Amino acid sequence: MTVAPSRWLSALRELGLVAVLFLIYKVGRLAANGHVSEAFSNARAVWDLEHRLHLPGELSFQHRLLTWHWLVEVANSYYAYVHFPATIACLIWLYVYRPAHYRWTRNILVLLTGTALLVHFVMPLAPPRMLTDTGMLDLGRLYGPAVYGAPETDQLSNQYAAMPSLHVGWAVVVAVALIAATSGRWRGLWLAHPVVTLLVVVGTGNHYWLDAIAAVGLLGVAYWVVRAQYPVAVPVPELVGVGAVPRQRVLPVEEPALRG
């Protein structure tokens, strides 16, 4: 099967757009770096707030995880190697097989990541693995594989940007997109991805429970903003055999043409 040149050009354009947006996010996240004392002050405030809200303790959860050292390594690997590949694979699949769902999902990710960047500027936050006085450990550094280097020498990432958790936010977007774009009876199992991601980021000491709650809250706003772009199943006659019932195809919502 041959692919039309316009299809390749469209794919390259989308790839370039995603790459530029990701670069902007990375540069912006690094620009928000450096507020160390404020990040630790906010971390202590979040830690205390979670206790007042009677949320499960990150420390007790991490202690349970430490009873299985092999599971710690699995969790570290999931944190390091699943986040980006899973999101990229989802976007590629949607682009090829569900274009309307791809545009909707891409816009959700852009809104979520953009608002997350604003939060990084407003509220720098040290992750729980840095609160050594609470007993929390950096499981990535202790057991590997480690994603981050020492904070004082790490020039490639901003480690004081724990809130919101984009690991959790992107995982939810992937699960929702695949559930919406497929029709199998077991498609609800895609929700396992954000659930496992949540347990991983908290257990490894990279995020607080409130980081995940903040991500889901921002995601809810993003879904509301682009609610009109949700692909709608429209009945389209399709000859599939004598006496067959016409199938439904998911058609993209056409943007209104500009009038001169």
TrEMBL record:
Residues 45-224 form the Inositolphosphotransferase Aur1/Ipt1 domain. The keyword Membrane applies. The keyword Transmembrane helix applies. It comes from the Bacteria. The chain crosses the membrane at residues 12-32, 78-96, 108-126, 160-179, 186-202, 208-226. It holds the Pfam family PAP2_3. InterPro entries: Aur1/Ipt1, IPC_Synthase-Related. It is a multi-pass membrane protein. It is found in: Membrane. PANTHER family: PA-PHOSPHATASE RELATED-FAMILY PROTEIN DDB_G0268928, PTHR31310. This is Inositol phosphorylceramide synthase. It comes from Actinoplanes palleronii.
